[in-house]
Amino acid sequence: MKNIYISPKFIKQGEFELVERKGVGHPDSIADGIAQKVSNELSKYYIKKFGRIMHHNTDQVEVIGGTAISKFGGGEITKDPLIILSGRATQKVGDEIIPIHEIAKEATDKFIKELFRGEIRVGIESFMGEGSSDLKDVFGRKNSIPLSNDTSFGVSFYPFTKVEQLVFDIENFLNSDKMNKKYPAIGRDIKVMGARIKDNAKITIALATVDKYVENIKEYATFKEQIIEILKDKFGSCDVDYYINTADDVERGSAFLTVTGSSMENGDDGSVGRGNRVNGLITPYKPMSMEAAAGKNPVNHVGKLYNVLSLYIARDIYHNTNAGETQVKILSQIGKPINEPLVCDISTEKELSSEAQKEVRKIASDWLDNIKQVTEDIINEKVNLF
């Protein structure tokens, strides 16, 4: 029983729209990235050693900000940020002890070095424990289709609006290797907020600037102007206004300077699940789950799987039918097969004929039957989770 429902078409957005993306170097995104990296490395270790993924959930990561003294021409870190790893992971199979803390710390260290190109140090502590017996029991039952380990829901939609796509693309562009090489003052900690007011879009960007690449406030102001002109040239300026670091006070010499390119160096903390949803955005004008997807096990934790699955279903419905924008919401029940949700609710922009409704149900049903593909995509890092 797939329990697939098609709701009446939804009402399109009106005159206002808000959308946000926290870049890869934002403390919340760092927490998400570490949680997912630890889960992936544990999964690969379990598969190599035991032929299957063992129970784990590593979605409890805290980034504790350090302290720094930033200044034009180059400052210094006076206290390194601290990464605290928590959550649960299977630590013993038979007589074999699994080095979960070592795996988690190595994964964290690798993630930070790759993200910041080796230019930042962090402390790492692991407090991961063993999972509860009931969740391990649900996880370990021999079924061809895993049983859900939670009563939870996943939500997504497809495609992006123009403003959503703009916000997503701007952050990825500014954080690209090409821009970093040409403008090394651009830090990894970038947050982009978009607001559409009728036909006008206002893009506000918080851009952590690496202090050693900027000599003075005048050069800093010129740098910001250059970046805005680059954005206008690439993404257009018709009906779009761009703002960077609006808290700056150039006359007083106040600027968003960092030593490393991330605000986690100086008191800004981060936690898993406070950032982007699985589609890479925070969309208060669209349905979204508050579930933290990063770090949850990719086998039967529907808080992770259903958020990815709903995106896949919405995407395929949009591309393969005339439904237009599609929204998908899927609800599980703990202990039930993950391919048999309690509800799979699909709503579309356009009215659907009976034939189109059959095709929509088939797309959803096929994806539910092939939900293990979602697990494989997550482990092989073919899908972003934040």
Automatic annotation (TrEMBL):
Keywords, in A-Z order: Transferase
GO molecular function: methionine adenosyltransferase activity
EC number(s) stated in the UniProt entry for this protein: 2.5.1.6
Enzyme class: transferase
InterPro entries membership: AdoMet_synthase_2, AdoMet_synthase_2_family, AdoMet_synthase_3
Organism domain of life: Archaea
Matching PANTHER family: S-ADENOSYLMETHIONINE SYNTHASE
Protein name: S-adenosylmethionine synthase
Source organism per UniProt: Candidatus Methanofastidiosum methylothiophilum
Lineage: Archaea, Methanobacteriati, Methanobacteriota, Stenosarchaea group, Candidatus Methanofastidiosia
Name of encoding gene: mat
